[in-house]
Amino acid sequence: MEISMKTTLSLLFAAALSLSSMPAHATKLDLATMSCKQFLESGDDTIKMVLTWMDGWYKGDEDNAIIDTDVFVDNAKKFGTYCGTNPNVSIVTAADEVLGK
């Protein structure tokens, strides 16, 4: 199943704008092995959780209690574009390329 760029961006944009509660069931996600394709197909809750984690991880110790929604959405769009064109790349590699660490 191939996901179009428009669908990818729509999913990521919607996820970024609707930071709601996390799923009630316990899950372990190995982000080092998750591909962009798996991420994009993982569902709304997982997408939101991973995008939120990336936002904090790549900020480091800077502004650790602040979520700038404009920056968050912009980064989510960049990440979605990169993953949409590189489905076999791990999301950690994609995040490094887009957000730099």
UniProtKB/TrEMBL annotation:
Domain of life: Bacteria
Transmembrane segments: none
Coiled-coil stretches noted in the UniProt entry, renumbered to this chain: none
Secretion signal span: 1-26
Keywords: Chaperone, Periplasm, Signal
InterPro entries reported for this sequence: HdeA/HdeB_sf (IPR038303), HNS-dep_expression_A/B (IPR010486)
Pfam families: HdeA
Entry protein name: Acid stress chaperone HdeB
